[in-house]
Structures are given as structure tokens and as C-alpha cells.
């Protein structure tokens, strides 16, 4: 166990340092600016939470009701964080290659991977309710700690560990069916369906909690089991909560496989000859990726849920989830850019990165719109905005994949990129909301932001490819730069490669 903890810390330290030395964050000034923006956004959220909670501070009953309702939302947030990290970790087995030279067993390596994943999930979950926790302590002092522990800390830990046990059981089930190479993919899909089901029960749960509060009797729900037990016997709650956490940790450790099972990175799709007339190699890297399959399933499930739920949200907004398939697209196509015949144009590379996602969204948008128009025509009104949102998602996800390149499919880079994008665009959204500009001006600002993001992505692609070309050397001959045919357009390629053949011999 200790070896696994040390190994998990080593992985986290390695990739944290690598991320801070590659891409946008390699400049110290940029890192300082990002930290200032993050603290600014956190301060704004804390101030908003403080103003919201201040009227409740004088009424313990309302305070208790608010925390019980917040626990219901916390469960959904914890489930979402668990699934997001699981999706990002589907193809992260390449990280373990860094540990093959270390004196650790396969089980210790698998446990370290699980700890690394748990640490990132815990951070994502904590960030969702950090502002509320800080504001609660500022208003109530230490008397808020029991609420935070019983409503946030323990339920989040139990939900995460319970989902971990369920995920392990699902993986074992798929493995028994000889589907081990896509067990992670199938398990994530099942858990996402569970998340959608839970989201449909949230309104009824909140109504039950509120009715119980006004009736003066309270109601027992599994989401508020810890708080319910604390109200009746704090000593029993203090004993039962650690026992439940320890039991779930033991179950996760017992169900962890002795060796990490590598998942299939690509699926055998679009093998027909006519597909080659439309799809480029970059497009195949996208549409055959297992994470694209997850995004596609999420899109279909969200579309069906929004269409059945009735008026309120246009079902076409589910296409935004499909744009997340591009988070690993730039790093996943790096082998193509290493080929001698690869293009040197950063603009063309960017266009190819976007083309596959545009085709993917179009392939889903057309049938979704037709089905929605037949089932509920009113729900399909103003479908242009969801489409623009999906295309804006393409620009944003490509920017994340380029500016925060994922070395060895490391999810830490992607999560950090998503966090930076959330901070920057969150502050922009807050500023636009406070200024209350006309709709035309707001659209113009958003269009300018999208153009700036696209231009920055092209510049970063040019810089990344130039640095990679300069670092490339002849194998086994350090200091001898590798010549590529693209650098000498007037030479015969065989002449350009002759030096490498001689060196290799």
C-alpha cells in the first residue's frame, strides 16, 4: 500500500511538472496570471455564496434545510466528477509505462493508478462546493463544520467509493463476457445512464425534503442518511461514517485487478471503402477513438432525455457533449505529423483537427433535428443556437488539446486545460452579465473570443511542431538533426533519407 501511494505521488508530481513546462503554462507570467484569475473567480463565487447564505444564518432550521438540499446536488456533482475522470482515464494506460523500470508489482501499479485517479476526482468534487464551504464558515464559524462534514465530506466520499465498487463489479462482469478490452467503455456508459436516472429523481427528492421540513417531522432519504443519523445520535454517526468509508475502501482494494487491464483505444468503425473518400487520417483518429464513442452515447442519451422531458431546453443542446471528443485529438494525431509526408502548415493542421468534429456533429445534428421535428416540433424552435454552441465547443476543445498537450494520454493536462478555460470564460460570462450589453454586442464579443481562441491555437500548433522538429534527432546519433523531405522540396526524398540509412547501418 505504501509503495502504491509513493508511486501515485510520483505520477502526480511528474505530470504536474511536465504540464507546467509544456504549452501555455510554460511561461511564469502566464502561470501567475492564471493563478490571479482563478483566485478572482473564486472570490466572486465566495461573495455570491455569502450574499445568498447571509439571510439563512439567523435561522438554523433554514440552514439545515439548505444543507440537506445541497447534499442532493452534491451526489449528482460527485457522480459527474467520477464519470468525467473515468472517461479521461480510459486510454491513460500509457502513463504506466513510466513505472515499468521501478521495483513494484503489477498490483501495486494498479493500486497507484487507482489512487492517482481518486486524487483527481476528489479535487474536482471539492472545487464544486469550495465556495459554499468557505462562505458557510465565514457566516457561522466552527458551528458550520458539522454541517459540512455530514452534508458534504462524508456523502461525497461514500458516493465516490460506492461508484468505484460498482465500476469494478461492472468491469468484472464485462470481462466474464469476454469484453475486457472495452469493459471500461461499457461501464462508463452504464454509470452515465445511472446518473441520468438520478437526475430525473432530484426534483421529487427535493420536494420530499421540503415537505418534511414544513411538516415538522423530517424524512429519511439515503442522500441525507449521515445528517439524519447525526441529528439522532452524533456518537453513532461519528462511529458509523468512518466504518462505512473503511469498508468501501477495502472493497475497492479487494476488487482492484492484480494487473491493470489496457482498454482498446480505437474501435473498428467505418471500414467501408466509401468512407475513405470522405474521411482523412485525422478523421479516423477521431471517429474510431473509444472516447468519441462515449461522447456519442452521452449525446444520444441526453437528447432522448431532453426530448422526453418536454419543453424547457432544446434537445439539440446535447450536441455540445459531442464536442468533448476533441480533447485528445491533437495529441492523438501526433504520429501522423511525424510522417515525412506530413504537412508543415499549422493552419492546415488546425483545419484537419476541426473537420472531423464538424462532420461528426453534422452526422448527429441532421437525424436529431428530423426526429425532434416529428416528435415535438415546438422543441426544435431556435435550433441555431445549440448548433453554434456545439461549433464553439469544437473551437474550445481543440484549443485545450493544443495548448495543454496530453503527454502519454495524461488526463491531468486535459483537466488543467478545462479548468483554465472555465476560469477565463467564466469571468468573461460574469462580466458580460454585469454589463448587460445588447444582444448584438454580446454576440460580437463571443465571436471575437472564438476567433482569438482559434488564432491562438494555430500559433501554438506552429510553435509545438517547430520545437518538435528541432528536437528530433537521428536514432542512436545524438546531436545529428533528422532531415525531413518537407524541409528540402527540391531534393529527391531518397537523397534526403540517404544520410539516415547510412547512420542506421
Detailed description of the structure:
The protein is mostly helical. The protein folds into 2 domains: 236 residues, no CATH class; 169 residues, no CATH class. It is 72% helix and 0% strand. It has 19 helices and no strands. α3 runs antiparallel to α4.
Number of helices: 19
Calculate the terminal CA-CA distance, rounded to whole Å. 47 Å
Radius of gyration: 25 Å
Q: Helix-strand pattern, N to C?
A: HHHHHHHHHHHHHHHHHHH
What is the overall pLDDT average? 81
Let me know the largest β-sheet. none
The portion of residues forming beta strands comes to: under 5%
The helix-and-strand class reads: mainly alpha
Helix content: over 70%
Q: Would you report the number of β strands? A: 0
Q: What characteristics describe this protein?
A:
19 helices; mainly alpha; transmembrane; disordered C terminus; 505 residues; globular
Quickly describe the structure.
With 505 residues, this protein is mainly α. The chain has 19 helices and no strands.
What secondary-structure arrangement, pairings included, does this model have?
Blueprint lengths: L1 H18 L8 H26 L6 H29 L17 H35 L4 H32 L6 H33 L9 H8 L1 H22 L19 H4 L2 H7 L2 H20 L9 H4 L6 H4 L1 H4 L8 H30 L8 H20 L7 H25 L3 H33 L21 H12 L1
Helix pairs in contact: 1-4, 2-4, 2-17, 3-4, 3-5, 3-6, 4-5, 5-6, 5-8, 6-11, 7-8, 10-15, 15-16, 15-18, 16-17, 16-18
Amino acid at each position: 500500500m505504501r509503495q502504491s501511494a509513493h508511486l501515485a505521488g510520483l505520477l502526480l508530481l511528474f505530470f504536474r511538472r511536465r504540464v507546467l513546462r509544456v504549452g501555455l503554462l510554460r511561461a511564469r507570467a502566464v502561470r501567475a496570471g492564471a493563478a490571479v484569475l482563478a483566485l478572482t473567480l473564486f472570490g466572486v463565487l465566495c461573495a455570491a455564496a455569502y450574499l445568498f447564505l447571509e439571510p439563512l444564518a439567523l435561522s438554523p432550521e433554514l440552514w439545515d434545510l439548505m444543507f440537506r438540499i445541497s447534499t442532493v446536488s452534491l451526489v449528482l456533482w460527485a457522480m459527474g466528477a467520477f464519470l468525467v475522470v473515468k472517461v479521461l482515464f480510459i486510454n491513460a494506460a500509457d502513463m504506466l509505462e513510466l513505472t515499468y523500470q521501478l521495483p513494484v508489482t503489477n498490483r501495486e501499479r494498479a493500486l497507484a493508478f487507482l489512487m492517482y485517479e481518486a486524487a483527481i476526482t476528489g479535487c474536482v468534487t471539492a472545487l464544486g462546493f469550495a465556495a459554499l464551504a468557505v462562505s458557510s464558515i465565514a457566516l457561522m464559524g466552527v458551528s458550520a463544520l458539522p454541517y459540512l462534514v455530514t452534508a458534504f465530506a462524508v456523502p461525497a466520499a461514500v458516493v465516490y467509493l460506492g461508484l468505484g465498487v460498482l465500476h469494478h463489479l461492472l468491469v468484472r462482469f464485462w470481462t466474464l463476457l469476454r469484453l475486457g478490452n472495452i469493459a471500461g467503455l461499457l461501464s462508463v456508459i452504464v454509470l452515465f445512464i445511472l446518473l441520468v436516472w438520478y437526475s430525473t429523481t432530484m426534483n421529487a427528492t427535493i420536494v420530499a425534503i421540503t415537505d418534511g421540513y414544513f411538516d415538522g417531522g423530517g424524512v429519511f432519504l439515503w442522500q441525507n442518511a449521515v445528517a439524519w443519523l447525526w441529528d439522532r445520535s452524533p456518537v453513532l454517526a461519528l462511529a458509523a461514517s468512518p466504518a462505512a468509508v473503511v469498508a468501501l475502501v477495502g472493497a475497492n482494494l479487494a476488487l482492484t485487478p492484480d494487473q491493470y487491464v489496457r482498454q482498446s483505444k480505437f474501435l473498428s468503425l467505418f471500414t467501408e471503402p466509401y468512407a475513405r473518400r470522405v474521411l482523412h487520417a485525422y478523421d479516423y483518429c477521431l471517429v474510431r477513438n473509444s472516447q468519441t464513442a462515449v461522447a456519442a452515447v452521452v449525446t444520444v442519451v441526453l437528447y432522448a432525455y431532453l426530448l422526453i422531458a418536454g419543453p424547457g431546453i432544446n434537445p439539440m443542446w446535447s450536441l455540445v457533449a459531442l464536442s468533448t471528443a476533441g480533447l485528445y485529438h491533437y495529441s492523438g494525431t501526433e504520429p501522423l505529423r511525424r510522417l515525412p509526408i506530413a504537412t508543415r502548415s499549422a493552419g492546415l493542421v488546425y483545419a484537419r483537427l476541426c473537420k472531423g468534429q464538424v462532420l461528426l456533429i453534422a452526422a448527429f445534428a441532421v437525424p436529431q433535428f428530423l426526429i425532434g421535428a416529428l416528435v415535438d416540433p415546438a422543441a426544435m424552435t431556435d435550433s441555431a443556437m445549440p448548433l453554434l454552441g456545439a461549433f464553439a465547443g469544437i473551437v474550445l476543445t481543440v484549443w485545450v488539446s493544443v495548448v495543454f498537450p496530453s503527454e502519454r494520454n495524461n488526463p491531468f493536462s486535459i483537466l488543467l486545460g478545462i479548468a483554465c478555460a472555465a476560469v477565463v470564460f467564466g469571468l468573461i460570462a460574469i462580466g458580460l452579465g454585469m454589463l448587460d450589453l445588447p444582444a448584438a454586442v454580446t454576440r460580437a464579443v463571443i465571436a471575437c473570443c472564438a476567433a482569438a481562441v482559434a488564432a491562438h491555437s494555430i500559433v501554438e500548433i506552429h510553435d509545438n511542431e517547430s520545437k518538435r522538429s528541432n528536437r528530433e534527432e537521428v536514432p542512436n546519433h545524438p546531436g545529428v538533426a533528422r532531415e525531413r523531405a518537407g524541409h528540402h522540396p527540391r531534393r529527391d526524398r531518397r537523397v534526403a533519407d540517404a544520410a539516415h540509412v547510412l547512420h542506421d547501418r
